[in-house]
Specification:
Layout (H helix, E strand, L loop, with lengths): L6 E11 L6 E6 L2 E6 L9 E5 L3 E4 L14 E5 L2 E7 L3 E3 L2 E3 L2 E3 L23 E2 L10 E4 L19 H4 L13 E7 L5 E4 L3 E3 L4 H8 L2 H4 L4 E8 L14 E9 L2 E2 L31
Antiparallel strand pairs: 1-2, 1-4, 2-3, 4-10, 5-7, 5-11, 6-7, 8-9, 12-15, 13-14, 13-16, 14-15, 16-17, 17-18
């Protein structure tokens, strides 16, 4: 349940028209809205292949030839260079389209897999990762003792909603900033990471973490993840007078720990918590 399926078999739950559009309409899959062509002849109940955003459709695969003219990006997979089109959220006729839907027969399937089946490998799709820039603050790839902050989207977990409701959850305010991870290795050395890269120890992310003494709150095998917010970051939507961290996760030996186990000082820098009763995981999932 924790891994992200880039391409999976899903069922269309609804088809909606787009005002003023003759050739396109909106198909609902899981909790997402995806613009599709009317000529696909889709209807509620149809099983389709749903591609999440950030999926790279490789140019070498003829099934994705028509997408390549929309733009291409290149990334390294091991020692191999892969070029292809990367799916992003788009706005068409005033409607946001989140991902891609293709018919299973377009992809060569002669049978219809069960809903939820992960077909990422069969479609040759990869998760696009930004290439390591030359120079700058990046010195390596993310290898902190914790998961990256790109957790599965809740909309892709609707089949597990009844199970999710039984889990312990801490509702928090969504803050928009720069995702940063700080960790201490077994030798006591502190490392700092962006969402995908290890950063230079002299980077602005590290300097801010040290200003709030986060490095002194860690011990070997621990990592803390936070959003850097404030002036100059994401339009400073919280209208903060200065940059500061908002901690949303703390890890010890690759396991996330509860807030009541966080080191002294970290709870004071935590993402604001919401009322647990008002935001309880209850009720039925609706789209």
């Amino acid at each position: 349940m924790s891994s992200r399926k880039l391409v999976s078999v899903q069922e269309i739950t609804n088809i909606e028209p787009i005002e003023g559009a003759d050739r396109i309409e909106v198909a609902r899959v899981l909790g997402w809205r995806v613009v599709v062509g009317k000529d696909m002849g889709l209807k509620p109940g149809d099983r389709v292949a749903y591609f999440e955003t950030d999926s790279l459709l490789p140019a070498y695969d003829p099934r994705y030839k028509s997408f390549q003219a929309r733009g291409q990006k290149t990334m390294m997979v091991g020692a191999k260079e892969i070029t292809g089109h990367v799916l992003r959220t788009m706005k068409l006729r005033g409607v946001y389209s989140q991902g891609l839907i293709m018919r299973l027969d377009e992809l060569g399937f002669r049978y219809t897999p069960a809903v939820g089946t992960d077909i990422t490998d069969k479609t040759n799709v990869l998760k696009y990762e930004e290439p390591l820039p030359m120079g700058g603050a990046q010195i390596g790839r993310f290898d902190a003792p914790c998961s990256k902050s790109d957790a599965p989207r809740l909309q892709t977990l609707t089949d597990y909603w009844d199970e999710i409701k039984t889990l312990k959850a801490t509702p928090t305010v969504k803050v928009d900033g720069t995702s940063t991870t700080l960790s201490m290795d077994e030798r006591g050395h502190v490392h700092v990471y962006s969402r995908n890269w290890e950063l230079d120890p002299m980077s602005a992310n590290m300097r801010l973490a040290k200003r709030f003494q986060l490095d002194k709150m860690l011990w070997p095998g621990m990592a803390v993840q936070f959003e850097l917010c404030g002036p100059g970051i994401q339009s400073n939507r919280l209208k903060l007078p200065a940059q500061r961290p908002f901690i949303f996760a703390v890890w010890k030996n690759h396991r996330k720990i509860d807030r009541d186990q966080w080191p002294t000082g970290m709870p004071n820098l935590a993402v604001p918590q919401l009322d647990e009763h008002e935001w309880a995981l209850t009720g039925a999932w609706t789209t």
